[in-house]
Write a structure and sequence with these properties.
Layout lengths: L4 E10 L3 E4 H7 L4 H8 L3 E4 L7 H15 L9 E5 L10 H9 L5 E5 L5 H14 L6 E8 L9 H4 L4 E11 L4 E9 L7 E3 L10 H5 L5 E3 L1 H22 L9 E4 L4 H11 L10 H4 L6 H8 L9 E8 L3 E8 L3
Parallel strand pairs: 4-5, 4-6, 11-12
Antiparallel strand pairs: 1-7, 2-3, 6-7, 8-13, 9-10, 12-13
Helix pairs in contact: 3-4, 8-9
Bound molecules: oxa(dethia)-CoA.
Length: about 325
């Protein structure tokens, strides 16, 4: 029996125009370019401005470009999955809105919420539908408008996050390239270290929750940092080991972009040099579900068919995971 693999056959990204620099943040909160750069690696991030524009606006731009560059008609798409933690609405799903905006009609679409690991969760789910032979073309999107839930008076979080979107096309690969392995994990031990307390069904938004600033992201950074360093490195090493990959076999590490020091620790644990690590945190900050597809988009020209990639992420929940992908084009 031939195994059908789900391969990424195209990638596209979109970031909004407005650039929020460290210099501008220095005027907003008690911080410095030196602190932000040395502790996180971030120099600037993009912010979506404009009344009534949500995550779907950026995601739809990314998907439109993806369909056009891969020569895919909206009517050819079988399924669309959107990973996001900042959906436009509680319901309907952002995936539903994206389909409407790009002219995709009457297919299945849904959102995945796994914080910064969302894109890896969505890719894992999408790949199952290809591997079973049920679908031939699946769009997987990672998109977040973090500026909608960031408190720009809180220096411990506002310097970290940015807005953006990335999208990939998944198709069956006849040569056996594509998503070869996936590990996804979660542990509720992290639920109070990184979360948005109000706005869901436990604490619906009220004047009181807004006054307490519970509608913003809360993060106990140093605690999350410790878990992230250990788990992102461990899971990356685990996916390498169980696929008998040595460091020299890995062409690229594609890590979630939360903190340059977490990325360096992961690369170090995998035994790979920083020249093989995709990094764009300096330009975009942490765009949550969008970091990994935005990296693939930025580095697309440097990828070759058959390259071994390890995609790795860690995020709120906690959630984390790693995928082994053989690049297909
Ligand atoms: O993507 C989802 C997962 N999220 C992450 O992986 C993020 C994980 N956390 C981090 O990236 C890091 O914890 C931070 C960058 C948020 C902080 O770095 P750190 O090494 O964990 O902490 P630190 O010791 O460098 O800094 C902590 C100190 C605190 O001051 P005190 O209490 O030690 O006096 C903070 O108040 O740094 C202070 N601080 C700042 N100072 C200047 C926090 N934010 C800032 C700031 N500017 N923006």
């Amino acid at each position: 029996m031939t195994t059908i693999r789900a391969a990424i056959t195209g990638v596209n990204g979109y970031v909004p125009e407005y650039i929020l620099t460290n210099a501008e943040l220095e005027k907003m909160v008690d911080t410095s370019d030196e602190w932000i750069t040395s502790r996180t690696g971030i120099k600037e991030r993009r912010i979506l401005k404009g009344e009534g524009l949500g995550t779907s606006h950026m995601a739809a731009r990314a998907v439109e470009g993806l369909l056009s560059k891969t020569g895919t008609a909206p009517s050819d798409v079988d399924l669309l999955i959107c990973a996001t933690t900042t959906p436009d609405y509680v319901f309907p799903s952002t995936a539903n809105l994206i389909c409407d905006m790009v002219g995709i009609r009457a297919i299945g679409s849904f959102d995945i919420q796994a914080a910064c690991s969302g894109f890896l969760y969505a890719l894992t789910i999408g790949s199952q539908f290809i591997e079973t032979g049920k679908y031939k073309k699946i769009v997987v999107v990672g998109a977040d408008k973090m500026s909608a839930i960031v408190d720009y008076t809180d220096r411990t979080t506002c310097v970290l996050f940015g807005d953006g979107a990335g999208a990939v096309l998944l198709e069956p690969d006849p040569d056996g390239n594509g998503i070869l392995d996936s590990i996804i994990r979660s542990d509720g031990v992290g639920q109070h270290h990184l979360f948005q307390k109000a706005g869901g069904s436990r604490y619906p938004s009220t004047r009181d929750t807004v006054e307490k600033r519970w509608h913003y992201v809360y993060q106990d950074g140093p605690s999350v940092f410790k878990f992230a360093v250990k788990n992102m490195a461990d899971v990356s090493a685990e996916v390498m080991e169980r696929n008998h990959l040595k460091s020299e076999d890995v062409a690229w590490l594609v890590p979630h972009q939360a903190n340059k020091r977490i990325i360096e620790a992961t690369a170090n644990r995998m035994g790979i040099g920083m020249e093989k690590v995709m990094i764009n945190i300096q330009r975009y900050g942490n765009t949550t579900a969008a970091t990994i597809p935005l990296c693939l988009f930025d580095y697309e020209a440097q990828l070759h068919k058959g390259d071994n990639l390890i995609l790795a992420a860690f995020g709120g929940g906690f959630t984390w995971g790693a995928l082994y992908v053989k690049w297909a084009y």
